[in-house]
């Protein structure tokens, strides 16, 4: 076979070399085109920035420092933002509605559980996300969501990130106040009776000094207050209903989250299952009954099960689940939602909006929260 001319040899080598490099050349060109396309899109979206609205409770001691931190953080990140202060005649719900009218994409509650729940009342079912910057004593919902407490920078990073979780929103409707135009939201626990009486009588100065323990101090004053009596109708997830008539109780609670510092009031409550956990609590025998009730709560906390201690003799916790409950009692009783007092009523309804609220949470906790919820089911 005659030798291939040098020109043909060179041409063949060039072809082979080109075929070998072709995939790499295509990849480089494709990446360059994508990068150019992305740059064009970003240039088009110069007016499409996220608008953050921070709903701040100015009555909190750290409020002004938090205001400065928010301004500095947003300016350093070139965020579009506004800060709206709550007022005595303008709660978090009204401020959040104003923010949404102003075009806010993400509404951030900067305050305690009261500010969080009133902002959630407006943001739920809007397809807008809610962030939380915790200030206050309890911050129970923030803790349940794994949001950093007492670290404003970390909380700001979470509120302006893309990690999120859809959670249920509980509602309380005061049915003997027809002028009320909305259901009062709760994210943790709402109740009628002793728990609300205890919260209503808590000394604010003592609460500031010893945090949530101040509630127990107030509770001691009302251990022997008269019981409440009435009818309760529960509606199950499958639509069936059951009415308990003429029951007496110390307190009746509906829970979305059941965890409080150190204790679990409703260990089987899951915040995104579209179901409320109900507890009807009663005691007898004076201090013995209250001691037994405390033992029941400790037993629930340790076992993680909604069951009374086998040692209980003078306490009763009737636990059930459902999507709604209507309560009619013989005399007015105080009502609380996440630690806020709504006043007194003889007729109310608890209900739940399933996964109605999108909450910004640490991205690292998304998978673990999902897994934990699956384990609870």
UniProtKB/TrEMBL annotation:
This protein's cofactor list reads: Mg(2+)
* Listed transmembrane segments: 6-29
Which GO molecular function, any one, fits this protein according to its record?
kinase activity
SUPFAM superfamilies registered for this protein in UniProt: NAD kinase/diacylglycerol kinase-like
The entry's keywords = Kinase, Membrane, Transferase, Transmembrane, Transmembrane helix
Q: Does the keyword Thylakoid apply?
A: no
Give any Pfam family that matches.
DAGK_cat
Q: Which residues form the DAGKc domain?
A: 47-177
The entry sums up its family as follows: Belongs to the diacylglycerol/lipid kinase family.
Q: PANTHER family under this entry?
A: SPHINGOSINE KINASE, SPHINGOSINE KINASE RELATED PROTEIN
Please give the name of this protein.
Answer: Diacylglycerol kinase catalytic domain protein
Task: State the organism of origin.
Answer: Gardnerella vaginalis (strain ATCC 14019 / 317)
């Amino acid at each position: 076979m005659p030798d291939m001319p040098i020109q043909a040899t060179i041409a063949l080598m060039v072809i082979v070399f080109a075929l070998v490099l072709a995939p790499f050349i295509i990849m480089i060109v494709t990446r360059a085109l994508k990068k150019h396309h992305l740059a064009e899109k970003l240039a088009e979206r110069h007016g499409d920035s996220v608008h953050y609205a921070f709903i701040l409770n100015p009555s909190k001691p750290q409020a002004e420092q938090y205001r400065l931190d928010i301004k500095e953080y947003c300016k350093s990140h070139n965020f579009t933002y506004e800060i709206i202060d709550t007022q005595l005649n303008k709660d978090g719900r009204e401020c959040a509605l104003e923010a949404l009218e102003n075009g806010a994409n993400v509404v951030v509650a900067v305050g305690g559980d009261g500010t969080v729940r009133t902002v959630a009342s407006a943001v739920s079912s809007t397809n807008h996300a809610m962030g939380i910057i915790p200030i206050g004593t309890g911050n129970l919902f923030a803790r349940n969501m794994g949001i950093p407490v007492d670290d404003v920078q970390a909380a700001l990073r979470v509120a302006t990130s893309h990690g999120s979780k859809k959670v249920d929103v509980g509602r309380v409707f005061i049915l003997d106040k027809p002028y009320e135009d909305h259901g009062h939201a709760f994210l943790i626990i709402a109740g009628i009776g002793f728990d609300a009486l205890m919260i209503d009588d808590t000394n604010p100065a003592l609460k500031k000094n010893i945090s949530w323990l101040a509630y127990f101090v107030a509770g001691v004053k009302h251990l022997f207050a008269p019981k409440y009596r009435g009818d309760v109708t529960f509606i199950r997830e499958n639509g069936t209903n059951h009415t308990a008539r003429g029951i007496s109780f110390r307190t009746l609670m509906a829970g979305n989250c059941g965890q409080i510092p150190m204790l679990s009031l409703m260990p089987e409550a899951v915040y995104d299952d579209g179901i409320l956990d109900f507890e009807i609590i009663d005691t007898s025998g004076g201090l013995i009954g209250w001691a037994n009730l405390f033992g029941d709560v400790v037993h629930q906390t340790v076992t993680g099960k909604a069951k009374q201690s086998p040692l209980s003799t003078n306490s009763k916790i009737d636990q059930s689940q459902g999507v709604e409950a209507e309560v009619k009692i013989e005399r007015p009783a105080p009502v609380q939602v996440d630690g806020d007092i709504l006043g007194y009523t003889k007729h109310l309804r608890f209900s739940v909006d399933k996964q109605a609220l999108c909450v910004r949470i640490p991205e690292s906790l998304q998978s673990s929260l999902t897994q934990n919820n699956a384990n609870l089911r």
